[in-house]
Amino acid sequence: MHVVTNRRQGAQREYVTHLLRRSYREGGKVKNETLANLSHLPPELIELIRGALGGVRYLPADEAFAIERSLPAGHVNAALAMARRLGLPRLIDRSPSRERDLVMAMICQRVIAPASKLATARLLSLSTIADELAVTGAGEDELYGALDWLGERQQRIEDRLARRHLKEGELVLYDVSSSYFEGRHCPLAKLGYSRDGKRGTPQIIYGLLCDKAGRPVSVEVFDGNLHDQATVPAQIEKLKRRFSLSTVVLVCDRGMVTKANIELLGEQGTHFVTALKAPQVAKLVTDGELQLSLFDQHNLAEITSVDYPGERLIVCRNPLVAAERSRKREDLLAATEAALREIAERVDRGTLLGAAPIGLAVGAVANRWKVKKHLAIQITDTTLTFARKTDQITAEAALDGIYILRTSVSANDLPTPDVVRSYKQLKVVERAFRTFKGPELQIRPIHHHLEHRVKAHVFLCTLAYYLTWHLHEAWKPLLFTDENPTPAPDPVAKAERSPSALTKTQTKHSPAGQPLHNYKSLLADLATLTRNTIRLPETTATFDKLAEPNPIQARALQLIENAPVET
After folding, report:
1. Same domain for 553 and 525
2. Pairing of strands 29-37, 14-26
3. Residue 375 located in a structural domain
4. Cβ–Cβ contacts within 10 Å for residue 111, how many?
5. Residue 252 forms part of a structural domain
6. Edge to edge, what strands does the sheet with 249-252 contain?
7. pLDDT tens across 462-507, in order?
8. What domain count does the chain have?
9. pLDDT tens-digit profile of 16-35?
10. How far, CA to CA in Å, does 278 sit from each of 33, 281, 397?
């Protein structure tokens, strides 16, 4: 039996018939017999009958192929696509090598699922990273070797980043942070002021240089007990000597700029934007150089002072910050007074006697809430009395919400509102530190003991943040991030989200109707896009097939392809 297809062209259309026929021999002649007209069946069923009669073997759908392995691939494809658009492999080293591939694998793994080097060696085979970068079978020792190789090239890589992102006369943002350390055998690990809240734990300090948009350009690791201001001279030297920038404006926090650093900046011809500390602000008020009546009608003013020759002082007052500081002061005072009243009751009952024991109890309370300066406390062997210093509290409250920026840049080069905006841009460096320490990159805790490996680990995290920063930028339409923030006319006022960002927050969907993600959940969504290794039945032949992306995954990959990047 076989299927015969007849076609006849009519006046208006073509007529097609599919007949099931049988061929047989009778009296030495071959004859054909029509058994059925199949024309009314669906075309795919007709083809199945034709194939079956022709000897083709058909299997049930669940037996047609065997999926030997399924690996998460979407998030790997996204990270590698962005890395290649940025020219990151060539930025790391101009020549292809096994070490470069291993470094790229560690960067991508830290972006999608950060882990220790031992865990990374295991995780590489649990996604498509190892296959994509041809590092299958790489072990922990090989990863450590690649990390050492990367550390040796840090300066060259930073020089290339500086040429790419730092321009003459532009702002350079600088800030420092710290991360705690596991172990006590690294010369960099010291006890110091912990920004992680890990008192008594050794730490390292690292300073991060970024361009004005927040892209990391350079990172430097220091001893954990080094003061912030002591890290600045190395950055000035780096900007002037290594990066060959003759004119640059360094923006840094108020704790960075000491008198010695100001003099060094002046000697090097480097301008700065920073802020005064609270005692310096109070001195300007006491000396009469800052009149608080300026802020009866305005929240921004520019003054000069003999204590800061050749500098501009921009005075700002934020009423929201003022209200918050007033509330916090009152809460701390109320909590301190409540604790002191409990101690006073013990003294009155006679269960706590002696000036020294009473003083110890009061000291514990004072150290907890840190507002003893606003209280007049009298202690004897049998009494405890306290009262608020109302005049002092009123004087401090008058400065609530007031901060003063200082800069050596002329008004022609940097107008007053732009000075405020420049200082506020330090928020992007703080965002980088939150990403370093958060679930995105997990720079801490640090387990390396060798000094050069600790530095290489921090640099690896910096390169991972460089990649993460660009992924964030490309994926803004799919995230809750404000895509089109507009600078407020008033630089001191609280920043407002754009109408489109507010709509995204309210609806939880993009303008195209797609559900919005945060960065980590979008990576998790992409991870469900798998690459499947399929084996043909009754053979050893296999082929790879990527799952069909859903609309969000397709959009995320398309945004990377269309992302504008600097190379």
Report:
1. yes
2. antiparallel
3. yes
4. 25
5. no
6. 216-223, 203-211, 171-180, 249-252, 271-275, 402-407, 312-317, 300-303
7. 999 999 999 999 999 999 998 888 877 888 888 888 888 888 889 9
8. 3
9. 898 888 888 887 788 888 88
10. 105, 5, 12
Distance CA 92, CA 71 (A): 27
Considering the domain architecture, whether residues 36 and 102 belong to the same structural domain is answered as no
The answer to whether residue 196 is domain-embedded is: no
Q: What is the pLDDT of residues 307-319, one digit of tens each?
A: 888 889 998 888 8
Tally of CA atoms within 13 A in the half-sphere of 407 that contains its CB = 26
DSSP string, 373-422: GGEEEEE-SS-EEEEE-HHHHHHHHTTTTEEEEEE-S-TTTS-HHHHHHH
**Residue 85 and residue 27 in one domain:** no
Radius of gyration of the chain (CA): 35
CA angle 462/110/479 to nearest 5° reads 85
Give the domain-ending residue among 343, 362, 397. Answer: 397
List the structure tokens of 47.
């083809």
Question: Same domain for 506 and 548?
Answer: yes
Cβ within 8 Å of residue 64, ≥6 positions away: 537
- 35 and 117 assigned to the same domain: no
- Return d(Cα 309, Cα 110) in angstroms, integer: 48
Q: Which amino acid, one-letter code, is at 292?
A: L
Length of the chain: 567
Q: How far is CA 86 from CA 41, 149, 303, in A?
A: 55, 21, 44
The neighbour count for residue 497, using CB atoms within 10 Å, is: 16
Parallel, antiparallel or unpaired: strands 14-26 and 171-180: unpaired
Same domain, 20 and 70: no
pLDDT tens across 333-391, in order?
999 999 999 999 999 999 999 999 999 999 999 999 989 999 999 999 999 999 999 99
DSSP class of residue 312 equals E
Cis peptide before 42 (omega within 30 of 0): no
- Domain range for 377: 320-397
- pLDDT at position 326, please? 92
Give the pair of three-digit tokens for residue 19.
């007949």
Which of 331, 365, 397 is the last residue before a domain boundary? 397
Contact 458, 221 (CB under 8 A): yes
pTM, full prediction = 0.84
Answer left, alpha or beta for residue 134, where phi above 0 means left and psi between -120 and 50 means alpha. Answer: left
Do residues 37 and 102 share a domain? no
DSSP-derived pairing of the beta strands 542-546 and 530-535: antiparallel
**Neighbour-count burial for 335-370, b at 16+ CB within 10 Å, e otherwise:** ebbebbeebbebbeeeebeeeeebeebbeebbeeee
Q: Which residues contact 35 (CB under 8 A, 6 or more apart)?
A: 1, 20, 21, 22
What is the per-residue pLDDT for 321? 86
